Amino acid sequence: MKRPLCFLTLLTSLLCACGPGSAPGVPVTPGSADTVPPAVRLNVGEGVVKTSGAVPLRAEASDNVGVVSVAFYDGERLLGTDREAPFEATVSYAASDNGAHTLRAVATDAAGNRSEARATLTVAIAGAGATDTQLPTVRLSATPQTLTAPGPVDLTATASDDTGVTGVTFYRGETRLGEDTAAPYTFRDDLTAVGAGAWVYRAVASDAAGNAAEATTTVTVAGQPTAPQGAEVAVLRNSPTSYTVTVRPVPGFPVSRVEVYDNGRLVATDDQAPYSADLTYTAADNGPRTLLVKVFDGRGGVAEVTRTLNVDVVATGDAPPTVSLAPDALTVTREEPVTLTANAQDDRGIDRVEFLLDGERVGVSREAPYAVSLSFGAAQGGTRVLTARAYDAAGQTAEARTTLTVAIDAGDFVDRATPIQIGQSIDGVIAGSPRDIDIYRFTGTADDRLRLSVGGQGGPFPNSTLDPYVQVLLPDGKTVFEQDDDSGPGYDAELLFNLPQEGTYYIVVTSFRILDDPRATDDRPTNLYRLSLSRR
């Protein structure tokens, strides 16, 4: 619910009249020559402005005799002069001012000595009816690119954006190494502990609107890789048209993802154990095939294994199979197994039916009835697409699709909070009990810069009846750290915040009607929302 906000601001100014060449309360000895300039520091807050209005500036200045004044500038434009501590000024920006601004604080002492401090302020204000969708540009280099023995590597990223880059985050594989918020964007990594191999580094540049772009580079360390070489790769022949690639990790050697390339073309990716990929061929694919299997260990290490096979499929005039799915649409509201059945037929027989959820294989059935059983939790909320792909003995295929809407109520207690990852979105519903709340948990590190939004009518659910309210709780699960009702589009909620410490935080989502009135209830099944948590 939108409410008018009333703010009362009390501004008190203390003015002191001083004689020429003297600071308030500071004696000046006749004939003395003060040549020591003042010391000054400038504070511009977070360094990013996203909304129109006044931005407070503060300078800390000191001198061996005394500071007479501090003048504040945006470039060469004088913003104001303050003659008494605390030295402060304000500056206002609009969308037309978007870009990087160099702010200056010039401190002057009683003898006329001056010194200056500078800070960069990035203005990224969305104009009327417009949003920033321009991605940053980023390049990444590593020095050295090749090492004869494990050791340190210096990473350097160059990044730019139309409204300003807020930071660059460095990764080795999927491992987050650190973040640099000011150019030049650099990080030093040490490969001594991880050893020989090919290590993939990533630099992810973000702007004030949350847009992100990525660049990669590979560093090679000579020697025998220690991981993920501990994986056994096999290619199984199921039929003349069907093969299965399996990757089995050896205990003690981690595997995070497997990619399979067929004659240089990426044909399958699997990031969940057991790691496998099914390959199907027709007579048009006959001949020798080279399979390249890339095994990733999640720390930046990549191992490559090559296998060869010879495809020999007899061409026929066989008709392709037919397949259908039941039910043709389904809404999942409880954490209970859901069974979907495919009706597949072919005049010469069905070889198998594969089931894919959002493009990822989740099951294979080789005998009728062709079925798959799936389980969902609140963290998997949203619209999901299930595909049944039927294969006949000649390798011909047919597909059928159905839509699953997952809207499972999240936990109502901290100890049963639904996990959410930074960078993830979850669909939910405030329903199931008269005064329902949904609680999520996530883990972050100190100074993580996050954006949290709860969208209903102004987001993906234009017919939603929910006016969302959101709170962020500290790791104690009790203390409210941040809260919001209507900072997003329409009645939607949005928060921008930095984490004060490392730990597990909790997100509480409910209806504003419930929060505003202790006697009110709101459990309409149309109280749909999408919770999104991302870095900014």
Explain what the structure shows.
- This protein has 536 residues and is mainly beta.
- It has 5 domains: 39-123, Immunoglobulin-like, CATH 2.60.40; 137-221, Immunoglobulins (Immunoglobulin-like, Sandwich); 231-311, Sandwich (Immunoglobulin-like), CATH 2.60.40; 322-406, Immunoglobulin-like; 414-535, Jelly Rolls, CATH 2.60.120.380.
- The strands form 9 sheets. Strands 10, 12, 13, 15, 16, 19, 20, 22 and 23 form a 9-stranded mixed β-sheet that branches. Strands 2-8-7-4-5 form a 5-stranded mixed β-sheet, with no helix packed on it. Strands 25-31-30-27-28 form a 5-stranded mixed β-sheet, with no helix packed on it.
- Strand 12 (165-172) and strand 13 form a beta hairpin.
- The longest helix has 5 residues, at 512-516.
- The model is unreliable at 1-31 (pLDDT under 50).
Features:
Immunoglobulin-like; 536 residues; 5-stranded mixed β-sheet; 9-stranded mixed β-sheet; 5 domains; globular; single chain
| Proportion of residues in extended strands | over 45%
Counting helices, strands and paired strands, the structural category is: mainly beta
Proportion of helical residues = under 10%
The level-1 CATH class of the largest domain: Mainly Beta
Quick structural gist:
The protein has 536 residues and is an all-beta fold.
Topology:
Blueprint: E1 39-43, E2 48-49, E3 53-62, E4 67-74, E5 77-82, E6 87-93, E7 99-109, E8 114-123, E9 137-143, E10 146-147, E11 152-160, E12 165-172, E13 175-180, E14 185-190, E15 197-207, E16 212-221, E17 231-239, E18 242-249, E19 257-262, E20 265-270, E21 275-280, E22 287-296, E23 301-311, E24 322-326, E25 329-332, E26 338-345, E27 350-357, E28 360-365, E29 370-374, E30 382-392, E31 397-406, E32 418-419, E33 424-429, E34 438-444, E35 449-455, E36 468-473, E37 480-484, E38 493-498, E39 503-511, H1 512-516, E40 528-535
Parallel strand pairs: 2-8, 10-16, 25-31, 32-34
Antiparallel strand pairs: 1-3, 3-6, 4-5, 4-7, 7-8, 9-11, 11-14, 12-13, 12-15, 15-16, 15-23, 17-18, 18-21, 19-20, 19-22, 22-23, 24-26, 26-29, 27-28, 27-30, 30-31, 33-40, 34-39, 35-38, 35-40, 36-37, 36-39
